[in-house]
Amino acid sequence: MSDFEQKERLGKGAFGIVRHVIEKSTQHHMAWKEMDYEEQQDIEMVNNEKVQALNAYRILAQAASRSKQFLHVVQPLGFFVNEDIHRAYLVLEYCSGGDLRKYINNMKKSGMEISPKKCYQILGQIGSSLNQLHMNRIMHMDLKPENVLLTEDFMVKLSDFGLSRQLQVGREYLTAHGGTLFCFKLPRYF
Question: What are the transmembrane regions (predicted)?
Fold first, then answer.
């Protein structure tokens, strides 16, 4: 942890706090997600977050390199644990444009509207992001403005793959959210 200079808090989710950090030796800007754990189920949740992020990025990076597409997912850069304080850190690519929720709120506060052109740009990139995921049989499962990040040059990157699923051909996926049962199946099997 002493290798990093901690900057501002970027957000807070159900499983932890995300901070902007700078690696002291390289001056490289990054984000890290701090996740506390105390019980076995917390450790499993932290490990799942790490595994899902690494798997999604690895699969999509391979596919994007073959097709020369922009990679619309946040790159995981590392993972470490501080056993003394029961905290794990998932180190991620830093997206200096913030998240879509903050962008929308800032536009509202300033009394400005998002132009139709900017809306189409954002929605098109979200669609492209989801297409990249789905073409590689990955379901994000937690798409919301807070998980849509913006780079400095306003490119969309999806984050938070802790709930994502790697789909297998022919298998149905059932999940309950808010008391509603959803069935996920690859579109060609409907």
Answer: none
